[in-house]
Design brief:
By secondary structure, the chain is α/β, with parallel strands linked by helices. It has nine helices and eleven strands. Strands 5-3-2-6-7-9-8 form a seven-stranded mixed sheet, with helices on both faces. Helix 7 links the parallel strand 6 and strand 7.
């Protein structure tokens, strides 16, 4: 490549097989210091962790499953002992798998349109050549994620990455991802249709599917209303704890209520569209089969009072 020389290195490490309504506009601290997600991800959900942690705490010995793992900010912050992380986007999963193997990348980075479009062409060429699972593809995916517009990941109908240059004034890149190698040994990564996931009966499932909005071209197949219904019905059949996150559109609320989920409403900062609009939006957590320790009891747990629990 004329605009940058790419070298990728990996260490030989084998990875191991990881109706009450409530409204809030507060985004609390996410808790103990966690490893930052390696990618910047539009629509990331680390801000939800203060609301998710009380739901997760009684199940910390269970496997955490994310059928739509995206930027994995929630998993890295909750830090489960085991996690099964899936995404229909095979390129993000390829990146994570190479992090498991000890990926270290050296690029002649350049925050310029010329370099960006050259690397984007190279990435799409790798896809066309069937080399999308290589460390080179993983490294370029990282570069495109950092340098592309608004942290978007978007593909056209031909499966080509088509996010434009981001025009950031200043960017920082990393070449050493060693800090992810150890925690990632506890995670298993898959890229399959969510209904194909090998769920265990007591898995704790946190599902954050693409939102019920106009933009749905996260993968070349897209994610429409039929997939929203499939997701909700599939998780309604799961016997273990489930937390399902989405934008609280009227039809999403009606769908989740019809399937017996308990709904908890949140207002959180996020990007609603590729225009960069940061207007807060009403979001919903749809919850099933979850035992939650009483909030006052959680505060007093250190005083060894009897534990009180509720089911939602």
């Amino acid at each position: 490549m004329s605009d940058g020389e790419l070298r990728c290195y990996t260490s030989a490490v084998r990875p191991a097989a990881a109706r009450s309504q409530y409204s809030t506009s507060e985004v609390a601290d996410i808790g103990p210091r966690a490893i930052r997600p390696p990618l910047k991800w539009a629509g990331g959900k680390r801000w939800q962790v203060p609301h998710l942690r009380p739901l997760w705490e009684p199940y910390q010995s269970h496997r955490l499953v994310e059928p739509f793992c995206g930027g994995i900010g929630v998993t890295l912050t909750l830090s489960p002992e085991r996690a099964l992380l899936n995404d229909v986007n095979p390129h993000i999963i390829n990146f994570y798998r190479w992090l498991q193997r000890g990926l270290s990348v050296q690029l002649r980075f350049s925050n310029s349109a010329t370099a960006y479009y050259a690397f984007r062409r190279r990435f799409n060429a790798l896809l066309e050549e069937g080399r999308e699972d290589t460390p080179e593809a993983a490294a370029i995916f990282y570069y495109l994620n950092r340098t592309g517009y608004n942290g978007l990941c978007r593909f056209n109908q031909r499966g080509r990455f088509n996010v434009p240059f981001g025009r950031y004034a200043k960017l920082e890149y990393r070449s050493d991802f060693a800090e992810y190698r150890e925690p990632f040994t506890r995670f298993e990564f898959l890229s399959v249709d969510f209904e194909s996931l090998p769920l265990e009966p007591d898995d704790f499932v946190y599902a954050d599917p693409p939102y019920d909005v106009d933009f749905r071209q996260y993968s070349k197949e897209g994610f429409g209303w039929e997939e929203q219904v499939r997701t909700a019905e599939w998780l309604a059949r799961h016997t273990g704890p489930v937390v399902l996150s989405n934008q609280a559109t009227p039809r999403i609320v009606e769908l989740y209520e019809s399937l017996g989920y308990t709904l908890k409403y949140l207002t959180g900062p996020r990007l609603i569209s590729c225009t960069g609009d940061r207007t807060p939006a009403k979001e919903v957590l749809a919850i099933r089969n979850v035992r939650v320790a009483d909030s006052a009891q959680r505060v007093k747990r250190r005083r060894a009072l009897p534990r009180v629990a509720a089911f939602i």
